[in-house]
Amino acid sequence: MELCKHLSYRRSLSPGKAVFFYQTAECDFVPLRVEVAKIVGQKSGYSEGFAADFEPENVERHALAHGNPQTIESCYVPPNVGELFCRFSLRVEANSLRPDSCSDSAVTQTLSRLAHQYQARGGYLELARRYCKNLLMGTWLWRNQHTLGTRIEVTTSQGSTFAVEDARHLSWSGDWPEAEQLSLEKLAEEMSEALSEPSVFWFADITARLKTGFCQEVFPSQRFVERPDNHDEPSKQLATTACRDGQLAACFHAQKIGAALQQIDDWWSVDADQALRVHEYGADRKHLTSMRHPVSGQDFFHLLARADEFVELMAGQSVSPEVFGDIHYAMAVLVKGGLFQAGKAG
Predict the structure, then answer these.
(1) C-alpha to C-alpha distance for 276 and 263, rounded to whole angstroms
(2) C-alpha pair distances (Å), 299 with each of 263, 282, 296, 324
(3) 3-state secondary structure at position 212
(4) 127 and 328 in contact (C-beta within 8 Å)?
(5) DSSP readout, 40-86?
(6) How many Cβ atoms from other residues are within 10 Å of residue 267's Cβ?
(7) For 123-175, what is each residue's pLDDT tens digit?
(8) Which of 2, 21, 75, 233 is a plausible cystine mate for 228, CB 3.0–4.6 Å?
(9) Residues 6+ apart with CB under 8 A from 191
(10) Residue 346 included in any domain
């Protein structure tokens, strides 16, 4: 299949902001607040003592001992609170069944057949199972996964409720206890239907209940801001969302939640040791490299060009696990959505 000039897909997974709050005897929703602190940091960076060529700077000894005053934002559990909650909603739509916009009718037909064959082969169930793993494992909590206990509850628009009593004991590649595995399968069945049936309007409400240590630090999303010119403006700012009464609650950006749910790509190698966030070039931000570099032929655009081949293979009797892994990955990118045209957008 030839890549066309204009091709785009709308995302199928749309999470909301994840809001941190706690409960008291008087109120079941008290927003977790962000604090501003003035600190005296240390001058400990490489450039403080060395030039670019690894030559020591001509700097006085006492200058390296001077403080570095900063204003930062931080977030901590209040001292009289032992449990913290984090909650968000998720909307799932069947937007990968056909392109949102496409300049070539033949490409539209091929990609629609690809999604149809993928649905018939149960492919959406595999994707849903992986997304739901990240939901129930609490991957979306990021650095806040380290707790004294993490209970996760998912309530769906179909009236179902699924709960994991302690997500800390679940892993991506390990075996799950029978009860948790059953919850995973049932939740994945609902989500896969929403991913593959346009007539299904499916939402989920996800709440994590965290047992915390005394005044434990919490890590919401961090805002990207220009470095301030004065010490009174925080150089590190955390994400908040405004409540109805005007109070600000610490939160995760929706994009950060989506990034966690999309960490399902372990098809990039038969020896893959981690599940990467779905990305056209298999970006591994931890190691600052690409696991699906274009020269490998395993990037999304090379695989998208094989859509005709994938349709024929899935219409046949059998597909090898390696090839099905390529198809799973390609469909996961379409579920993610984006602009996929050949050449520059415009």
Answers:
(1) 5
(2) 16, 7, 7, 15
(3) coil
(4) yes
(5) EEE--SHHHHB-TTSPBP---GGGGGSEEEEEEEE-B--TT--EEEE
(6) 23
(7) 999 999 999 999 999 999 999 999 999 999 999 999 999 999 999 999 999 99
(8) 233
(9) 92, 128, 131, 132, 202, 204
(10) no
Torsion over CA of 171, 177, 182 and 187, rounded to 10 degrees? -20
DSSP 248-289: EEEEE-HHHHHHHHTEEE--S-TT--SPEEP-TT-EETTTTE
Ramachandran bin of 60, using left for φ above 0, alpha for ψ from -120 to 50, beta for the remaining angles: beta
Name the average pLDDT for the chain. 93
Identify any residues that bridge with 237 across adjacent strands, giving them in sequence order: 223
Cβ proximity of 301 and 294 under 8 Å: yes
Closest CA to 133 of 180, 184, 87: 184
Q: Which of 150, 119, 115, 118 is nearest to 135 (CA)?
A: 150
Would 47 be classed as within a structural domain? no
Mean pLDDT of 8-31: 97
Residue 346 is predicted with a pLDDT of 44
217-247, pLDDT tens digit by residue?
999 999 876 665 665 677 788 999 999 999 9
In contact, 239 and 252? CB cutoff 8 Å: yes
Mark residue 266 as left, alpha or beta (left: phi above 0; alpha: psi -120 to 50; beta: remaining): alpha
- Smallest CA-to-CA distance from 34 within 252, 210, 250, 241 is with 250
One-letter amino acid at 205 equals D
Q: Is the dihedral of CA 116, 118, 120, 124 positive or negative?
A: negative
Please report whether residue 63 resides in a domain: no
For residues 35 and 270, the answer to whether their CB atoms sit within 8 Å is no
Q: Residue 19 forms beta bridges with which residues? A: 87, 251
Write down the residue that tokens 């069945």 correspond to.
Answer: 189
Q: Is the pTM of this model over 0.85?
A: yes
**Structural domain containing residue 92:** 8-41+77-338
Is 3 a member of any domain? Answer: no
- Domain count of the fold of the chain: 1
**Residue closest to 76 by CA, chosen among 183, 219, 208:** 219
